[in-house]
Amino acid sequence: MLDEKVDRLQTILEIDDSALASTLLDDSGWDIELAVENYFNSQASSTENTENSNTSATPYRLPISPSIAHVGLGSGRSAQAGSFIWTIWRGILWLAIKILRLPLWLYSFLFNQSVSFTPPEPVPQEEAHSLLLSSIDEAVNSREPSSSSTAVARTTQRQNTHVIPSLYLGTHSNALRDVKNNAQFGIIAFIDSSTTSDDFKYHTLAEEKFNKLVNEHDCLVWVGDISTNRDAYDVAISKGIRIFPRVEVHSMQALPTSRNALVSVPTMSHLGSISGKDSLGEDFRNLLSSRYLNRVSPYLRRLRNEKYERQRATYIKEAADRAENERMQRDAENVLKKREESARSAKAAEDIAQQREKERNEKANNEVILREYRNWLKSTIPGEPADGIRLAFKLPDGRRVIRKFSPETSLETLYMFVDTIDVEMSTKKPTRVVDFEPEFKLYMSYPCEFIPNLSDRVISQSQNLIKGGIIAVESDIKEYSSEEEDYDEV
């Protein structure tokens, strides 16, 4: 913030000395309005001291603003009075701009004594950057040797001592922002290719030692040509820059806060500037290295390390948060999965229970129907004849049931008799039972012969059954009466 105030005061008063602007702000408590008033008052006091002084030696005073130098109505007292009136008029105009909240660069624009520059045509930033690099490359390649005999040697020497610099591609504001955010040392240069010779590009921007110094200290270099770059033109007009080339040095510095002078915070600062030299050369490199880089680089390195540690801590925290979120998400997914599995298991168990209940109900219903059918079926068995074929049925539980059958009795009737031994007889016709099959088989004991369950075959058709005998029942009849009927063996 302090360097911004210094820049604004330099722009308003049109002074290039940043130390003078810092002194004015420091004496005024860093109040721009008060600094401007003190500046105008000091100008008026300097004029009166000059008028009243009869000696060549004059006391220390603030320098006269370049914009009001050589301005007056004549010589002597008339010139001094005109200068004083001009100063008062500028102060009144500045107050009017301040009260109306107009942009401060308007003040500098109105009192800019330089020749008005013609604004360049607006072009994309990439194109302006390409034009600048092309002009630097042309400035380097234009230094051709005077004779062909020294062409190879001088070309090799030029390649070893001059390189195309790595310039920042972007606007002036973005360059300063990156200088602040990345804790870099910023070198900002304004040039005017229409008036400036190629010496600055060749001996300064493309100079190999300068670029080596820039690369060693990780400096950000932004160069704006006001003849091709509209952004550079607008910045130069707003700052009131009249002399080109102009090189400014910006960096972060530890400055005290306005609330507590014992507490310092990193603040973007304008360290200094140089104007009007076509070739800065070795003096600029030495000044840049000894006065600025060696003093500021350790602090910038510490800021970068602190930023790296903050970014590293933030990255670790974000990674831990992501891992925790992923773990929580996995846990939530597992819980949901278990809930879904439990719900599916419960649903499956419920379906199985319902199916079993349905099967039990169907089975019970079928058993009721089957029992009724058997009760009715028993009533359809022909009665026992007096003189019939005696057959003894040996049941699986050891009982023997003896009954006489007519020779014309079908084999199916034998199965019906065995199946209805333990049921009560009923004449009520039940529901039709489809595909009813007895759960047993009948065999002649001797000779062993299987008796099929056929309705179209009768006892007389079997040579063994016609004689009577014992029939073994191979089955699992679940219900038997507790009462046993004893019959005589055949």
Automatic annotation (TrEMBL):
Any coiled-coil regions, as ranges: none
Single GO molecular function: ubiquitin binding
Recorded GO CC terms: endoplasmic reticulum
Domain UBX per the UniProt entry, residue ranges: 384-447
Gene3D superfamilies, alphabetized: DNA helicase RuvA subunit, C-terminal domain (1.10.8.10), Glutaredoxin (3.40.30.10), Phosphatidylinositol 3-kinase Catalytic Subunit, Chain A, domain 1 (3.10.20.90)
Top-rank lineage group of the source organism: Eukaryota
Region ranges (Disordered): 322-363
GO biological process annotation, one example: ERAD pathway
Database matches in SUPFAM superfamilies: Ubiquitin-like (SSF54236)
PANTHER family assigned to the protein according to its UniProt record, in alphabetical order: FAS-ASSOCIATED FACTOR 2, FAS-ASSOCIATED PROTEIN
Protein name stated in the entry: UBX domain-containing protein
Origin species: Wallemia mellicola (strain ATCC MYA-4683 / CBS 633.66) (Wallemia sebi (CBS 633.66))
Lineage, highest ranks first: Eukaryota, Fungi, Dikarya, Basidiomycota, Wallemiomycotina
